[in-house]
Amino acid sequence: MSSLKKFLSMIKFEHTIFALPFAYIGMVMGFSSGFSLRVFLLVSLAMASARSAAMALNRIIDRKYDALNERTKNREIPSGKIKLSQAYIFTAVSIIIFEVSAYFINDLAFKLSPIALFFVVTYSYTKRFSWLCHLYLGATDAIAPLGGYVAAAYSLSTPIWYLAAFVSFWIAGFDILYSLQDVEFDKKHNLHSIPVKFGISRALWIARLFHITAFVFLAISIRGFSLSWVAYVGATLVAVLLVVEHILVNPNDPKKINIAFFNINSYISLVLLVAFIAGRYCCG
């Protein structure tokens, strides 16, 4: 495996598709005088570098637990494919690229960038002391639409906060489902999660509640941006996908959890990207 492939595998680069579309949605909703290729490229670079730093830090911080967990012991750092020093260098470079990107986006983006970095650096620690770690991860990913909007509008508006709330509860909900794979391991090693705290059955209901809440905020954000009926069609399709996700999830079958996590959530991101763009620019 080449060095590049090792690092892309470590940060699960393909999962950037979860958050990047929401940065683009925020950007498009923030444009008032037409599309800007410069802003688009800088937002793309900032998002990719921020997520790379977040995932690399997560792997660094969790390396000891990853080595003990049968599911994660073959990850790049515990398996020795990537040295710890290399991971630190990769993280530092990613953070520098993020800060440089934020600097060139605009003053507000640069001033707010330390807040984004704070969440990026700290979210991996939350499961060590709180079962609210899922919501903290959701809040971290919710920075994507906020950042995209700031990049285009130089400000923040009420509707973009509703979209950020959707991302928060959507991410938190499927992170609960994903954590079902490690319930026994987490109990053994005193790690916190909603399934550990409340049990698997109640955790499934909490995840459903989070996703219902997410859908409500999605609908409110569409109304707040005064989007056309196309956006509501997209939201309806997202609701269907969320139902499918919960039907697919089987705590005793990790393969189905992975299908729900990777496939369904990728579809949700892309559907909403198309729905918001179409809802703003056509079929009004």
Number of continuous helical runs: 14
Helix-strand pattern: HHHHHHHHHHHHHH
Number of domains: 1
Task: Estimate percent helicity.
Answer: over 70%
| CATH class division | Mainly Alpha
What percentage of the residues does DSSP assign to strands (E)? under 5%
Record field, number of beta strands: 0
CATH fold name = Tetracycline Repressor, domain 2
The residue ranges in which pLDDT falls below 50 over 5 or more consecutive positions are none
Report, as a whole number of angstroms, the end-to-end distance.
Answer: 50 Å
Structural class: mainly alpha
User: So what's the overall shape?
Assistant: globular
Instruction: Please identify, by name, the CATH architecture.
Output: Orthogonal Bundle
Mean pLDDT: 90
Biggest sheet architecture: none
CATH superfamily: UbiA prenyltransferase
What brief labels describe this structure?
cell inner membrane, 284 residues, Tetracycline Repressor, domain 2, 0% strand
In short:
The protein has helices at 3-10, 20-30, 37-61, 63-68, 84-105, 107-122, 133-141, 143-153, 158-179, 183-188, 194-198, 200-224, 229-248, 254-281. With 284 residues, it is mostly helical.
What this model shows, in words?
The protein has 284 residues and is mainly α. It has a single domain, classed as Orthogonal Bundle (Tetracycline Repressor, domain 2). Helix content is 75%, strand content 0%. It is built from 14 helices and no strands. The radius of gyration is 19 Å and the shape is globular. The termini are far apart. The model has no long low-confidence stretch (mean pLDDT 90). GO terms for molecular function: 4-hydroxybenzoate polyprenyltransferase activity. Pfam families: UbiA (PF01040). It comes from Hippea maritima (strain ATCC 700847 / DSM 10411 / MH2). It is an enzyme of class 2 (transferase). It is a multi-pass membrane protein.
